[in-house]
Amino acid sequence: MKFIPAKKQLLRPIAILLCCCLSLLVDQTQAEEVRIGVLAKRGHDKSLEKWNATAEYLNASLPAHHFVITPMAFDDIQVIAKNKMVDFVIVNPGIYVDLSVKYGIRRILTLINELSEDASLTKFGSVIFTLKNEESIHQLADLKDHRIAAVHQTSLGGWIIALREIRNAGVENWDLASLSFLNTHDAVVEAVLNREADVGIVRTDTLERMAMEGTLDLEKIRIINPRRYEHFPYAVSTPLYPEWPFAQLSHTSQQLAREVSIALLKLPAEHPAAQQAHIRGWTIPENYQPVRDLLMLLELPPYEKSLKQSITQSLVSYWYWYLPLALGLLFLIAMSIRIVRLNRSLSEHKMNLRQSQDAQIATFEQAAVGLAHVTPTGALLNMNQRLCAITGHTSEALQQMNLKALIYTDDLSLVTHAFDQLRLRQQESAAVQFRLRRIDGSLKWCQLTLSCKTNNSHAASYFVAVIDDINHYKLLEEETLHAQQQKDLILNIAGDGILGLDSQGRHTFVNPAAAKLLGYRIDEMLNQSSHSLWHHSYPDGSDFSEDDCPITAVLHHGKTHRGSHETFWRKDGRPIKVEYTSTPMLINEQIMGAVVVFHPTESQDVSNSEQSE
Questions:
Q1: Are 63 and 168 in the same domain?
Q2: Residue 345: inside a domain
Q3: What phi and psi values does residue 219 have, to the nearest 5 degrees?
Q4: What is 416-450 written as a DSSP string?
Q5: CA distance 395 to 357
Q6: Within a domain: residue 549?
Q7: Structural domain span for residue 445
Q8: Using 50, 70 and 90 to split pLDDT, how confident is the model at 283?
């Protein structure tokens, strides 16, 4: 046996004790953190104030773990549970049922509520209230067209339990003037007190606790649809449901859940943790099936129907509303299609109209004749460039002028008469030729055509004037007239007879000498056959066929023919002996007629010699 000195024997127990102390210190510093999520029904700070003592109680009871309270807002609970950010939750039964279905949380205890030493409860409900001086609301049916404030869509006592009673009274959400969710019970009460809402919905015990805290005077409040239950001291408007559960999440170990359950079941009612939480403690879990049934009845999470099921049920239940709505919708669709087509047609019509207007403007501006809009008194309104070119004036100058000022004085009466006829509606249009005085003082012959544009009363609104430059044609007309006059003079003074024949041998012109020699008037001979009129017989009186006639033969062979001592027959039947020349008239190498020039011979002896060229 190895010998150990006495001094070392004394140090060994001290070393063991130090090791044990260090071990305990290390265990404390490495204690596992356990988070308890608590629904912050009255806000973050009040939740910590209410439940921190419970966490401290568990820390003392289970030193291997470090418990921390995590206040949860209504809208954050789903995210926290889904991501396993807490290990236990204290929530209302509606949220518990939803989380149990979605994330598999399990209840382990139920809260025993306490308002006073004489009241300990495991059930709660909703209280629906308004101000006592609100005379328009006395029962649930009166909630229509009023402003409602509730805690949250997922708050069991602050909305869901009351919702069933409101629907049973025949009131739906759309019947309300407004529905506001304010996230805390205190905010709902304050909204009613401040008249920001007509009716408030909170869980039972809220009004009484706020009264105890001095923030509410219950004398100002009136309960709507009040109910009484034995051994239930709070104001209530609905049936009662199990109190809040203490539940473990799916990842939390059963051993830890069992240890927490045992510790909380041992929590004395007089312990600071129970007093700060205003509870008597915890009990074995209640049956939460009534809460499940309520959520199913109201079709709320997690039992909301799919969109297809909701639509089908809605169609079956309210077909008498949907039918006229569908018909109205079909009518709107049909009208929309009609409007779209009309708009498309209108757009096309506008485009065509614009193109037509552009074409009309282009036609007006680029017309080869002068165009103008003229008032019934002759003032020029609009004109095109061609009219400016005809007159020599600019458009600005013409707009300051009267059309009659451009007309030569001797022709003014003709134009004025045309204006009067249109203004008095004696004619639909009028046309006159006149001489226009240009800016340089020269005269130019023009053709004026007027038409009338009437207004709604059928009176003349303005005239459309078409002014064409016919000066060139007038000069040609004068030259032609002069040439005709010279021709007529020559024909009239000529001593020989001169006859014009067309391609059929009919007379087209007859000079006076020819008519006199043959004993006819000129008008008797025009358009008559020449052969049958004065060359129909031989000298002995026998018939002379036109086919053998050398005078009209030139209409076929196109060669000039001369004859002497030829017999022509007068109107009175007497023959005369003549010398003649028959010459064809050729235009573009086509025979258009002939000219016959003849005169009596000095000797009347019969001599029938003919010469042809």
A1: no
A2: no
A3: -70, -20
A4: HHHHHHHHTTS-SEEEEEEEEEPTTS-EEEEEEEE
A5: 21
A6: yes
A7: 367-471
A8: very high
